């Protein structure tokens, strides 16, 4: 018999949820549904999203990006979850079916994967974030939740949604918007909430040149996280109103939220009030890993002695599907041919055979062959790195075969001719790029 929260081989089970930073089990969360918007194209991740949606991109050696939003919902006590998919969703759907199939209808739980399927009209896919929810109104109403939490499926953070639900009820809001506290002049790329002394939103400004300050922190601004709480019946009414508006783009950030700021009661919820973090995490952690530079930086940060995100926290686990794999293996102990890793994360199934890692992250099933040196690199699953390879500041896509002797990260001009390079010097390597290399 397995203990609570541990699965038999290959069979994920409903975990025993533990909670950090909260005093009770959160009754409001039990009456809520999480609706996760996971159709993001993720075009700024370039070739990493050629075959997968952004929420399906790997993160942290074990997870997919979407696992963070889903785990937050599960750990918060929410047991009814819908995930709307659209762009190149096959790998995402396969991951969800493998790792998130433990919900049981007899316990009034539910997990629905909702691909865009022209349910409203034969010529309409999801045309906006609000439309993705509108097209599935009947499924939401079938679960009869009291509240709906709209979540983005493409951010890295740990959050207890119960305090946000409580604030929504206590302030009798029409919508509650979760917000990050950002240095004011760094908020120019966000949707910014202008609030009064009670955190009621009095204006919503998209990517302002001069962001409005917080009343109590004039050097800071409140940036929308794309997380919204609604009472279900009210949300259904708003979605139907918006769907009937031919001038609307049917988007929460562009249409629904601005409308409620003007005609209803919209309230900001500060992320610091519900962020879950351990004693080792000095700040409220939230990352949009939507560019190659941001993706590389967030992954490599996990190799630090004290990373900004504690992935070893057991009180708020990030759940996922893990394939059965043997432990990581390090072999050979000769000078210049020693299997070793310094300040690195090495996943199950990896073999470091006479190669050396420094400040790098290897996903499952990677092989590093003799005399190779890997530094500050993110290597996705099932990559084979040949002998005498040197990689520095790279992201290597899944399944790539790195030929012996290849050197990347030491000659920017040469790298730019062969691979995808960023302004900060991060190099993305895919199999098609390797196949184009001269013999």
TrEMBL record:
E.C. number(s) listed in UniProt: 2.7.7.27
Stretch list, region Disordered: 1-25
Keyword Acetylation: no
Residues where alpha-D-glucose 1-phosphate binds: 126, 191, 206-207, 224
Keyword field contains Protease: no
Gene Ontology molecular function terms on file: ATP binding; glucose-1-phosphate adenylyltransferase activity
Record key words, sorted: ATP-binding, Carbohydrate metabolism, Glycogen biosynthesis, Glycogen metabolism, Nucleotide-binding, Nucleotidyltransferase, Transferase
Enzyme class (EC, first level): transferase
A single GO BP: glycogen biosynthetic process
Site positions per UniProt: Could play a key role in the communication between the regulatory and the substrate sites: 86, 125
Gene3D superfamilies associated with the record: Hexapeptide repeat proteins, Spore Coat Polysaccharide Biosynthesis Protein SpsA, Chain A
Bilayer-crossing regions: none
Pfam families: Hexapep_GlmU, NTP_transferase
Nucleotidyl transferase domain boundaries: 34-303
Domain Glucose-1-phosphate adenylyltransferase/Bifunctional protein GlmU-like C-terminal hexapeptide as annotated: residue spans: 326-429
Catalytic function, reaction form: alpha-D-glucose 1-phosphate + ATP + H(+) = ADP-alpha-D-glucose + diphosphate
Family: Belongs to the bacterial/plant glucose-1-phosphate adenylyltransferase family.
Its biological purpose: Involved in the biosynthesis of ADP-glucose, a building block required for the elongation reactions to produce glycogen. Catalyzes the reaction between ATP and alpha-D-glucose 1-phosphate (G1P) to produce pyrophosphate and ADP-Glc.
Subunit and partners: Homotetramer.
Listed name of the protein: Glucose-1-phosphate adenylyltransferase
